[in-house]
Amino acid sequence: MYLTTEEEKILNGEKGWAYEVSMKILARLGDLFKASRLIPIKSAHISGASYKTIGDAPIDFLEALVNADGKVKVSSTVNPSGFDPDYLAKRFPKEYQRKQKRIIELYKRMGVDAVLTCTPYYLQQPKPNWHLAWAESSAVVYANSVLKSWTNREGAPSALAAALIGKTPNCGVHRAENRQPSIVIKVEVNPRNEAEFGALGIYVGKTLKDEIPVFEGLNCTDDYLKQLGAGLASSGMTAMFYYQKPGARSRMETISIERKDMKNAVETLSTTQQNPDLVFIGCPHCSLKEIETVAKALKGKRVKSETELWVCTSRHVKNVAKGHVNIIEKAGGHVLCDTCAVVTWIKNLGFNTLMTNSAKTAYYAPTLNKVDVVLTPLKRCVNVACD
Amino acid sequence: MKGRSIVPGQCKGLALVSAKPLSFLGGVDYNSGMIIEKGHDLKGKTIKEKILCFPHGHGSTVGSYVLYSLVKKGVGPKAIINQSADPVIVVGAIIADIPMIDQIDIKQIETGDEVEVDGEKGIVKVRKK
């Protein structure tokens, strides 16, 4: 991969260790994935913030970067943490609280905007054709497919390295020729709700390798596409999908999804049909519209004393959605920022059965959180949570 | 054997060889360097000061940070030899600054063999135990 004189200097350590090691990461990955050069990015989104998910190990590396005066060069955001400071923090041991605070502090000192969310696009929506370096697979797929920006599926360290340098190698879906669809997913009957859209994503993600699919026959909102993309990214390596005719697709291989496949996809993601002790909405973090939908569904209802209802979103969306947040909280629900049910220790909080409208959560929670899950649409989630 | 240079550096040590992909996050104990991945053929073995040979990494990209910490604590491997390099291990070896080579037929190496690694040239010399 070609490096400019300036980039070579950084690689040789002239700007300090933090930039040297970042440049080494980008240059080596660029070589391995056949990039020809580095290209500037508009923003970076970094994964690896929840102490539950990442543990102690990353703290050492982040500390070394901070000590070497590493600062991000572009607008950078970071994924959710292990708890929110208001509702959940006090329910965990002091040591967890201290370590989690330290991780967030280290990112802040590097200049990362510590809005802890998996939906950075609600804070600042990237424009079509912008090059980005985002980790968090659901955000990557949403950016490429719905917002038409360009980003590879970065890992935690490569997104951080790109943030510090402000560039990324021009490989993968940063090249137009690698953004071509190669398979048609013909959806015979439109999914009926967000749980089905997510389950369709999980089902299709499992059958694809790294092919880019075109979904044919979808009638949907951006929020439904968010669920579809989150599902696709969880069970497979896909970085993007199309949902409109991109032309010249007649010769492409086609997979048909029938009503029974969809029904099956939702059913296999549930591990129990028992009553939940936690009902969780907000994976990926809720949009303003989704918060509004939850508030409407909760009107005149009251969350049962034996159940908790969590609605997770970004601090930004929570602030904008104040009226809806009030309704949800009055009904006994909790609107939580900075975290979600998957990246916190729900088992330690005493929860054993999780009900959610997110197929991504249903896919991960049995292994990452060791709980049983029920996948079902929002309406039923709210009804079950309430008397 | 000649492979592809990933991270430069030279060293000598005893091989620890696995036929299975390895996840550093959750698969290797962060404090001791012991392999704890369920069902792994090296479960219970320590990677400390070994020339660690395995096909490739898998799992979370946070695994790169685990490799960094292991090496900084002195319980990490001396070098890594892979069949085919993947980003998690590549980035881990870069930030930990240990030699790494891929495109090596690791079936030719056995645990306990004495191995000499030249990360710059991509050369692996094996002396059978």
Concise structural overview:
The complex is a heterodimer of chains A (387) and B (129). Chain A has 387 residues and is of the alpha/beta class. Chain A contains 15 helices and 14 strands.
What does this structure look like?
The complex is a heterodimer of chains A (387) and B (129). By secondary structure, chain A is α/β, with parallel strands linked by helices. Chain A folds into 3 domains: 5-174, Aconitase, domain 3 (2-Layer Sandwich), CATH 3.30.499; 180-263, no CATH class; 270-385, Aconitase, domain 3 (2-Layer Sandwich). Chain A is built from 15 helices and 14 strands. Chain A has a 5-stranded parallel β-sheet, sandwiched between helices. A 4-stranded parallel β-sheet of chain A has the order 4-3-2-5, with helices on both faces. In chain A, strands 8-7-9 form a 3-stranded parallel β-sheet. The longest helix of chain A has 16 residues, at 17-32. Chain A starts with a helix and ends with a helix. The model of chain A has no long low-confidence stretch (mean pLDDT 95). Chain B is an alpha/beta fold. Chain B has one domain (4-127): Glucose Oxidase, domain 1 (3-Layer(bba) Sandwich), CATH 3.50.30. Chain B has 3 helices and 7 strands; from the N terminus they run ββαβαβαβββ. In chain B, strand 3, helix 2 (63-72) and strand 4 form a beta-alpha-beta unit. Classes of the chains: A alpha/beta (387), B alpha/beta (129). The A-B interface holds A 21, 24-25, 28-29, 32, 47-48, 53-58, 60-61, 135, 154-158 and B 6-7, 25, 30, 60-62, 64-66, 68-70, 72, 85, 87-88, 90-91, 94-95.
